[in-house]
Amino acid sequence: MRLIIMPESSSAMRLAAAEIASVMTSCASPVLGLATGRTMEGVYGDLVRLHQKQGLDFSSTTSFNLDEYVGLSADDRRSYHYYMNDLLFRHVNISQTNVHLPNGVAADLAQECADYEQAIRNAGGIDLQLLGIGDTGHIGFNEPPSPFDTRTRCVTLNERTREQNAAMFGGDPQKVPDRALTMGVGTILEAKHLLLLALGSAKADIVACALEGDVTPQVSASAIRLHDHCTVILDEASASALTEQTRRDADFRPR
After folding, report:
1. In the annotation, is 143 catalytic?
2. What φ, ψ does residue 139 adopt, rounded to 5°?
3. 255 falls in which pLDDT band (50, 70, 90)?
């Protein structure tokens, strides 16, 4: 695992965008696994800037998002479909036929999950999977406990997760859907490269738990330590609870 600690959140987001852009320019037909949430907003903003100012080409890129709420249609402003279109897809030259997100209103959710797994296989697998980390230690919506061999599936969301995501639902956790479709931990671990980004002091304790605690299904983010090609980008605030030994081994980037 390569750990990079940046001085501030803006530089961490720029570095994450640069890592994604590097994969895109080094692959003839890149397949990206994408994530949502406030942490990713700056990353997508930087990718849009790279497209508009430096010609970063999305025309041969295929994308698969980690998750989607059950019960929200693609045109619902609170859905991850809407989030991705609003922040990234409509601003770049990606083909809509190459954009994939789980369908949270599918008539048969189990079949939707099986079809999603098959679509990833048909694309040749994911070259780079972007990840955040939730308050429960989840990647995607893999709430504890999530065995490390799980595949794309329907899950019940932890109450803490619903509280964390309530801002998009008028601040009311009870309005956050209680189920979601998510790539499984096993699906995520099959990506060729994992890139986890965490920002801010509120993430410090769970980041330390994931990177220094037990590798356990109780903290699905800890599974990234089993991957042969994993990069973790933190800012100083999110790295603040790490031990001195871990910080000494990290790659610090200057201001």
Report:
1. yes
2. -110, 140
3. low
Cβ(246)–Cβ(212) below 8 Å? yes
Half-sphere exposure of 170 (CA within 13 A, CB side): 4
**Is 236 annotated as catalytic?**
no
pTM of the model: 0.97
Interval 19-73: pLDDT, tens: 999 999 999 999 999 999 999 999 999 999 999 999 999 999 999 999 999 999 9
Has 67 been annotated as catalytic? yes
What CA–CA distance (Å, rounded) separates 162 from 185?
A: 20
From 68, 127, 143, 236, active-site residue: 143
- Catalytic residue, candidates 67, 112, 127, 236: 67
> CA 41, CA 36: separation in Å to the nearest integer?
8
Q: Which residue of the set 81, 138, 193, 227 is catalytic?
A: 138
